Each structure stands twice: as structure tokens, then as C-alpha cells.
């Protein structure tokens, strides 16, 4: 009888400690999502190989040195990304993110100046997941999101979140002043500016 009582008490203690562990893991996960949630601004944009978008004959890997703005286009420092947690859609919850990505279009000036490829922004949405244990953030690409990004010649390769910064690695096609196109690996860095 004592053995049964001891076994019963051990099972109760095990169940209680498991519930405490589950609650703590849930709390840590929610705190990690709180760290990620917010608005970030672009602080760096580089390519894996030099590219000449402004038509001056001097290619750079730093997109900031190559940018020519179209009418009404945002400056690169205004490009942003957002992470939200637990958005409700049709009664289910998901985590949403969207990224403002630079893309180029051919610009032939009216004057005798050199043609250029000016920078415009495109906003690409994705769902995401985060793991508090590993500190990793993962984009969840549905067919719709992947096809939408592909329409702007963008393929997401990797994402990394660290110390209130988001690092993206993309495969991106840019239009050159010659009218040709070039595929490059584009690295973007965004810094967190606010929690909303």
C-alpha cells in the first residue's frame, strides 16, 4: 500500500513539474516574440559582386553608392520591415512579417545624361516562426508568397535575427543602365527602431 501511495505521489509531482516546465517554455517563447516584434529600418545593402546601377562605369558592392532614386521613391534608409505576433485571420493566429526590398527599373533621362537604373521599393509579406531556444527566426513561405516575390525577381535564401537586427540574404535580379539584367546575392541589414 505504501508503494502505491509513493508511486501516486511521484506521478503527481512529475505532472506538476512538467506543467511548470511547459509554462516556463511558453513564457520564454512569448518573450522572444516580444523582442522580435516591431519596426526595423534598413542600415546596409550590399551585393556579393560589384554592380553598376547608376551608369557611371564604376561598379560597387555597396548599394548605397550605386543608388539613383526614381520620382517618389524612398531613400534606402527609409526602407523598413515589420514583425507582428499573433495576428488573427479567420479565427486562427499567425505571425506576420513584411520586408521593403530594393528593386530597379531602367531610367532613360530626358537630357543627354547617362541612362541609369533607379531604385524603387517593393513590399514582400511572409509568415514567420521563431524559436526561443535556438534564437532562430524562420520565414514560412506559402506558394502565394513565393510566387509574389518571384514576380519581382526575389528569392529569399536566409534570415537571421540578432540583437534587434534583421539580416536577410536574397537572390535578386537588377536591371542595368544598358537594359540588361544581372542576378546577384543581396545582403540587407535592418535595425529595430520601435516595438510597434
What does this structure look like?
This protein is of the alpha+beta class. The protein has one domain (37-194). The chain is 22% helix and 50% strand. It is built from 2 helices and 9 strands; from the N terminus they run αββββββαβββ. It has helices spanning 2-36, 143-151, and strands at residues 38-51, 60-62, 80-89, 92-107, 116-131, 136-140, 154-162, 165-175, 181-194. Strands 1, 2, 3, 4, 5, 6, 7, 8 and 9 form a 9-stranded antiparallel β-sheet that branches. Strand 4 (92-107) and strand 5 (116-131) form a beta hairpin. The longest helix has 35 residues, at 2-36. The protein is elongated, with a radius of gyration of 23 Å.
Amino acid at each position: 500500500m505504501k508503494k502505491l501511495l509513493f508511486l501516486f505521489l511521484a506521478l503527481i509531482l512529475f505532472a506538476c513539474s512538467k506543467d511548470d516546465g511547459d509554462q516556463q517554455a511558453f513564457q520564454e517563447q512569448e518573450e522572444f516574440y516580444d523582442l522580435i516584434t516591431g519596426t526595423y529600418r534598413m542600415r546596409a545593402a550590399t551585393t556579393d559582386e560589384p554592380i553598376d546601377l547608376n551608369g557611371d562605369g564604376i561598379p560597387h558592392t555597396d548599394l548605397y553608392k550605386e543608388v539613383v532614386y526614381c520620382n517618389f521613391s524612398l531613400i534606402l534608409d527609409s526602407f523598413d520591415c515589420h514583425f507582428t505576433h499573433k495576428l488573427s485571420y479567420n479565427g486562427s493566429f499567425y505571425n506576420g512579417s513584411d520586408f521593403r526590398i530594393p528593386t530597379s527599373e531602367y531610367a532613360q533621362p530626358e537630357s543627354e545624361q547617362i541612362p541609369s537604373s533607379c531604385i524603387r521599393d517593393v513590399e514582400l509579406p511572409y509568415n514567420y516562426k521563431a524559436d526561443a531556444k535556438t534564437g532562430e527566426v524562420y520565414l514560412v513561405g506559402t506558394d502565394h508568397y513565393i510566387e509574389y516575390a518571384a514576380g519581382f525577381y526575389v528569392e529569399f535564401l536566409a534570415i537571421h535575427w540578432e540583437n534587434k537586427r534583421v539580416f536577410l540574404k536574397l537572390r535578386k535580379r537588377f536591371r542595368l543602365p544598358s537594359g540588361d539584367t544581372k542576378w546577384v546575392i543581396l545582403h540587407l541589414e535592418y535595425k529595430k527602431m520601435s516595438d510597434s
